Amino acid sequence: GVSGGEQSDDDTEGEGDDDFIELDEEEKRAREERRAAREADRAARRARRAKAGGPEAAALRAEKLKALYEPETFSRMMLTDADETARVTDVPERMQIDVAERAKPVRGELRKEAEWCYDLLFAHVVIPTSLSEEAQLNLAERRITALQTVLGLMRVGEAARGGGGAGASSDSDSDTAALSPPRLLLELAFIRYFRKEVWAEETGAGGGQPTLLTEAQLRTLPELDAQYCQLQLGKTSILERISRILVPSDQKHQAYLDGLRGCRTIEGMADISGHVRLHVEDLERRDGRGGRLLPSGNRRPAPRGLLGAALSSRVDVLCEWFGLPIDDLVRNICEHGAQHCPPLDEPDPPMVLAAAFVQQDDGGARTPSAEICKPEVALRAAVEAYAQQLAVHPVLRSRIRAHLAATASLSITATPTGKSQVDTSHRYRRVTALHAAEPPVLVRTLRPSATGGEEERREALRGAEMILLARKAAADGFVKLNLLPPDPDSLLATAHGCFLSQGAGDTTQAWNEQRGRVLARAFQGLAYPQLAAELLESITREAHAAVAAAAAAAVAAAAVAA
Questions:
Q1: Cα 101 vs. chain centroid, distance in angstroms?
Q2: Euclidean distance between the first and the last CA atom of the chain, given in angstroms as a whole number
Q3: Stated pTM of the model
């Protein structure tokens, strides 16, 4: 606005230029001076207005506002620097949020991501047998190219030009080339309706040809893209941790690299991360003060309890008592299913060996910690150390994960509230009725299925609804929900056969008892609870997706019928 002492540019003194008024020279000169003064005043006002709206004045006003108000106020009123950047950027804010933490894809990245997505989306899709082998390979390649093109439209965009749907190249090598600005990032809904030629069907294909991607597969791409990003970031973090601790010539370094290359899931990446943390950072690189030095110079807190006591002592000796390296035991269980590598029996009974360990002093090397002052404590620490290492082994965890997915059953236990309040008319009656179900309800029968007939899909949908209802009942305190391994447990029985010694004698039986405790702790105490909770979350997400898809299909059918 204009200050009170200023006039607008249209204000004048009301002097006319009538020719019939005769002015002498002095009056004419005074009149010209007044006109010049008015022009100078107008120019000064324009300069003040321009200065008040300039960047320096805006910065000054921003500093004054920051001095007057708290940062929470700016955030609540959406006046932060990030909010201003979002306003001036010519891209929808929701898309800015999606790509804020991600750099542009590097050479070949979109191709690898498309292959990863293809393995997940088409794992259970049967290619028509009427196609020749070469045609099947060509169809798979075109589907990967379609995935790559859609990912490129979402992450790189297409040139801002009218018409056509080939604005984004399907060649991943072009992703890092100098892009001619401006480029527009496309949202999935836009791609779905206006770029069908890149995903819905083969280019130039006639009727009856198999589609490249279905709409259901297309809708899952943003979620898969986020998972792929998380997977790559996790792999990078693990690789940095490994490189800081192990030299490239170390055998374990190469083993971890091979494991990361073959890792295709976030769960597998988390397994490798846990294995690295325990085996490398804790077991091999701990110093005398019980904590590993971080790059910042601080120390990471050491594990407590029996595991911490074992790590502070000669844990390698404790684990050798059981006569079989953990890698060999995992190979016995997961590869051979039998005792391919037998354990070596110790000549002394467990308590005798533990007493000798507690009393030894090797002259400054790793000696038993203060917590391990009794033979029975040393033996329990040995069991805990071996079980912890076994439970975090990525190969074994993958095997247990598949075992639970195929054989775990749903355990629903009514709480006192559920027993007293749930009657035949209660909304959770269907859930509490499963409390004493015989036989137990297997989790795999409740999971949505991408294959099978119409009846199987309806049954899977009913199972998905039951899962969501059970989770809701558990959240409201009417039931307790758990996933239980099978009883009897075939995998645990196989592990016993692979680990327990076949020899006779009291000493052998005593060590077999300790090995049984190791397996019970590793499987039932550590791995099973962790992976069962992971499986429960996984089937809940699948149930949400299945019910939402069924509801969307019903609404669409009703809209068409109307």
A1: 14
A2: 57
A3: 0.72
Q: Are 260 and 272 in contact (CB under 8 A)?
A: yes
Half-sphere CA count of 107, side-chain side, radius 13 A: 3
Give ∠ CA 117-119-120 in degrees, rounded to 5: 65
Selection from 146, 174, 142 nearest residue 158 by Cα = 174
Please report the beta strands in 78-199, taking only residues with DSSP state E, as ranges in sequence order: 158-159, 183-184
Q: Contact 512/519 with Cβ under 8 angstroms?
A: no
Q: What is the DSSP string of 163-198?
A: S-S--S-S-GGGGGS---S-EE---HHHHHHH-GGG
Q: 148 and 114 in contact (C-beta within 8 Å)?
A: yes
- DSSP of 275-330, one letter per residue? HHIIIIIIIIS--TTSSPBPTTS-BPPPP-HHHHHHHHS-HHHHHHTTSS-HHHHH
Q: How many CB atoms lie within 10 A of CB 323?
A: 15
pLDDT in tens, the chain (562 residues): 444 444 444 444 445 455 556 778 888 888 889 999 999 888 888 777 766 666 666 677 777 777 777 878 877 877 777 777 777 777 777 777 766 667 788 889 999 999 999 999 988 777 777 778 888 889 899 999 999 999 999 888 887 655 444 444 444 444 444 445 567 788 888 898 898 888 886 544 444 566 789 888 898 898 999 899 999 999 999 998 888 888 888 888 888 899 899 898 999 999 999 888 887 656 554 544 444 444 444 445 555 566 666 666 666 677 888 999 999 999 999 999 999 999 988 888 999 888 888 887 554 444 556 667 788 888 888 898 899 989 999 999 999 999 999 999 888 888 899 888 888 888 888 887 776 666 677 787 777 665 556 777 788 788 888 889 989 999 999 989 888 898 889 999 999 999 999 888 899 999 999 999 999 999 999 999 999 999 999 999 888 888 888 888 889 889 888 7
Give residue for tokens 């010539």: 249
What CA–CA distance (Å, rounded) separates 257 from 15? Answer: 90
- Cα torsion 503, 504, 510, 514: sign: positive
- Long-range contacts of residues 90-94, Cβ cutoff 8 Å, at least 24 apart: 90/182, 91/185, 92/187
Q: Containing H/E element for 78?
A: none
The DSSP secondary-structure symbol of 520 reads I
CA triple 423-428-429, angle to 5 deg = 45
Q: Could you tell me how many residues make up the chain?
A: 562
Q: Residue 507's beta-bridge partner residues? A: none
- Helix (H, G, I), strand (E, B), or coil: what is residue 13? coil
In the block, residue with structure tokens 């009056």: 27
What residues contact 30, with CB distance under 8 A and at least 6 apart? none
Question: In this structure, which amino acid lies at residue 232?
Answer: Q
Half-sphere exposure of 473 (CA within 13 A, CB side): 31
Alpha carbon 440 to chain centroid, angstroms: 32
C-alpha distances in Å from residue 178, one per residue of 42, 183, 290: 49, 11, 52
Written as one letter, the residue type at 364 is G
